[in-house]
């Protein structure tokens, strides 16, 4: 097998960072394509069962939640909330979990660390690709929460560019959260991460009620402001159900941008720490 | 044209922590273009850290490393574009097939889809992996996985290839196949830095060998030269039930013996000449419970023992 070697020949011209990142995106896309069924299952199961039980079964058995807003259905309140949860969940499942394993147990990340670009950009690619999956997750959840409820939600989108902006910011925040969790949490603590981070974030993310209604539990209303999911749900609420109470749009935009930057910076920092000793 | 592929000057590395570890303690090395260079030393000697710094995955505490004249700390991306790395562990992408491991690796190095497909096909062919192209890498045996790792490390045409303990954990047959592959790098002009703790591997493959221990390079030369200049001696392990300094001194005084030291198993004798030595040793150790004698001809291992007083596997 003496000739079993590629020619050293002329070394390849240095590739631009964009080209290298494109290669990483292609790889991630291929892996996503291969795991499309698991991706869809994990994305839709939670919201599917949630809307089925609470907005289809409950009204039929004579029980039901109130939206807390006169003249509106619980389903209408749920749509932005569940779409946002779907996106955050994707950030965790698609970025944090595989990254945690690749950085520790299998060290598979090494080959990509050795790709000719700064490792910081490799981490940024993780955020961006996590965001792409977040958008896909949001799109997958939307028809469920729209069509399943027995009393269909009333949505209106007067401002499409704002909706697109909110989806972009929310998905980037999800990707950044996924990167931060994936680089900090070791594989053996993934279960703990769900219990201590993912569950509290989703339950206290103003998913099932607008943030404004929390004014009767003032301390909680203040406490949940540290939860990035609150701004994601409020952002979608502001664009999908604008007549319902929601935070001012500028607050949401600043908060989501800040969350992306802070979580992203933490994630990139830990990523570098974990890959370069 | 500069003929130095890798230049390491005064390289130190301390891993911080409550029990700080000084992994490299002033390493100086020069690896010439096109040579196969062996870095030989026991586990924990600093081999992997040295490769880590050269391939930008470990930041040095002090000193300077250049690969093809490019500083590894100042220009890590540039360095990464010129090197190929085979790590100790299987770091193949388990989410991808054999073919995809090579194809996407090419894409990470900026190749077009057409070029990446062409090179992937060529390398799979050359490394006799074509029929496994569609397999997921988790199904590969250790030997095949290692072959794929090497194929991946050179598919983007690096000029310098780092191989960190490439034969660790391989069965003897796969190891021989690996040695052929490594030897095949020479006619292609790829510079190879190979770390190993198998002296036979370093001896057979390397143009030059540096012996490293406790983060320091002890010697660096061609294997034959190392064995000659260090007066590489026959090592005779005399296994005894009772051994002491007096007996060691008595053995050291025998003709042909240069040194005799007490070891946990008995006494280790370093000899220039084996001429009539074994009967004399048997005679001299009578009454000390002699139960075995093992003779090792001069090798890099005996050079290492001479330099450090320890076995490579100690």
Q: How would you describe what is shown here?
A:
The complex is a heterodimer of chains A (277) and B (314). Chain A has 277 residues and is mainly α. Chain A contains 10 helices and no strands. Chain A is elongated. Chain B is α/β, with parallel strands linked by helices and 314 residues long. Chain B has 2 domains: 4-226, 3-Layer(aba) Sandwich (Rossmann fold), CATH 3.40.50.300; 231-297, 2-Layer Sandwich (Alpha-Beta Plaits), CATH 3.30.70.920. A 6-stranded mixed sheet of chain B has the order 6-7-8-3-9-10, sandwiched between helices. In chain B, strands 2-1-4-5 form a 4-stranded antiparallel sheet, with helices on one face. In chain B, α3 crosses α4 (113-126). The longest helix of chain B is centred in the middle third of the chain and has 14 residues, at 113-126. The relative contact order of chain B is 0.14.
Describe this structure in a few short sentences.
The complex is a heterodimer of chains A (277) and B (314). Chain A is mainly alpha-helical. Chain A has helices at residues 17-34, 36-60, 74-103, 110-113, 119-147, 160-184, 190-203, 218-223, 228-240, 249-275.
SSE layout and pairing:
The complex is a heterodimer of chains A (277) and B (314).
Chain A: H1 17-34, H2 36-60, H3 74-103, H4 110-113, H5 119-147, H6 160-184, H7 190-203, H8 218-223, H9 228-240, H10 249-275
Chain B: E1 4-15, E2 21-32, E3 36-40, H1 47-54, E4 62-67, E5 70-71, H2 76-82, E6 83-86, H3 98-108, H4 113-126, H5 142-154, E7 160-164, H6 172-183, E8 191-196, H7 199-205, E9 208-213, E10 216-221, H8 223-229, E11 234-240, H9 245-252, E12 257-263, E13 266-271, H10 277-284, E14 290-296, H11 300-308
Parallel strand pairs in B: 3-8, 3-9, 6-7, 7-8
Antiparallel strand pairs in B: 1-2, 1-4, 4-5, 9-10, 11-13, 11-14, 12-13
Helix pairs in contact in B: 3-4
Features:
heterodimer; A: 277 residues; 10 helices; elongated; disordered N terminus; B: alpha/beta; Alpha-Beta Plaits; 6-stranded mixed beta sheet; 4-stranded antiparallel beta sheet
């Amino acid at each position: 097998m003496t000739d079993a070697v590629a020619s050293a020949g002329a070394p390849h011209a240095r590739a631009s960072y964009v080209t290298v990142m494109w290669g990483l995106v292609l790889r991630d896309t291929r892996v996503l394509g291969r795991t499309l069924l698991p991706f869809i299952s994990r994305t839709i199961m939670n919201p599917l069962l949630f809307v089925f039980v609470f907005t289809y079964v409950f009204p039929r058995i004579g029980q039901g939640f109130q939206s807390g807003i006169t003249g509106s259905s619980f389903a209408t309140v749920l749509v932005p909330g569940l779409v946002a949860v779907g996106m955050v969940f994707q950030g965790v499942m698609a970025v944090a979990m595989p990254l945690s394993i690749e950085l520790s147990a299998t060290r598979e990340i090494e080959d990509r660390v050795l790709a000719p670009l700064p490792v910081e950009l490799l981490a940024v690619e993780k955020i961006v690709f996590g965001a792409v999956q977040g958008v896909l997750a949001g799109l997958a959840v939307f028809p469920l929460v729209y069509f399943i409820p027995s009393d269909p939600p009333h949505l209106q989108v007067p401002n499409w560019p704002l909706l697109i902006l909110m989806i972009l910011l929310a998905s980037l925040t999800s990707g950044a959260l996924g990167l931060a969790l994936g680089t900090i949490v070791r594989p053996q603590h993934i279960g703990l991460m769900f219990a201590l981070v993912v569950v509290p974030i989703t339950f206290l993310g103003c998913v099932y009620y607008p943030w404004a209604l929390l004014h009767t539990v003032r301390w909680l209303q203040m406490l949940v402001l540290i939860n990035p999911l609150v701004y994601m749900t409020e952002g979608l609420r502001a664009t999908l159900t604008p007549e319902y109470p929601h935070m001012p749009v500028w607050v949401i935009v600043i908060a989501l941008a800040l969350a992306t930057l802070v979580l992203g910076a933490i994630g990139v920092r830990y990523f570098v720490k974990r890959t370069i000793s | 044209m500069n003929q130095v592929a890798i230049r390491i000057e005064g390289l130190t590395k301390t891993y911080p922590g409550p029990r700080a570890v000084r992994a490299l303690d002033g390493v100086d090395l020069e690896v010439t273009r096109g040579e196969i260079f062996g870095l030989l030393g026991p586990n924990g000697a600093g081999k992997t850290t040295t490769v880590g710094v050269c391939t930008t995955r470990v930041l040095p505490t002090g000193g300077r490393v250049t690969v093809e004249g490019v500083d590894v700390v100042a220009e890590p991306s540039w360095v990464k574009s010129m090197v190929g790395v085979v790590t100790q562990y299987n770091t193949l992408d388990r989410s991808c097939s054999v073919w995809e491991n090579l194809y996407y690796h090419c894409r990470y190095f900026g190749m077009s889809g057409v070029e990446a497909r062409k090179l992937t096909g060529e390398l799979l062919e050359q490394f006799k992996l074509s029929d496994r192209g569609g397999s997921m890498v988790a199904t590969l045996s250790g030997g095949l996985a290692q072959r794929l790792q090497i194929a991946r490390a050179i598919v983007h045409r690096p000029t310098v290839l780092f191989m960190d303990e490439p034969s660790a954990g391989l069965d003897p047959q796969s190891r021989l196949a690996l040695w052929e592959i490594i030897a095949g790098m020479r006619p292609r002009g790829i510079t190879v830095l190979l770390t190993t703790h198998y002296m036979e591997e370093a001896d057979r493959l390397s143009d030059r060998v540096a012996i490293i221990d406790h983060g320091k390079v002890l010697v660096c030369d061609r294997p034959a030269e190392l064995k000659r200049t260090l007066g590489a001696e026959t090592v005779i392990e005399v296994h005894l039930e009772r051994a002491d300094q007096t007996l060691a001194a008595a053995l050291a005084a025998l003709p042909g013996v240069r040194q005799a030291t007490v070891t946990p198993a008995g006494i280790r004798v370093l000899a220039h000449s084996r001429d009539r030595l074994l009967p004399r040793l048997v005679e001299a150790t009578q009454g000390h419970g002699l139960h075995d004698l093992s003779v090792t001809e001069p090798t890099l291992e005996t050079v290492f023992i001479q330099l450090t007083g320890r076995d490579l596997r100690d």
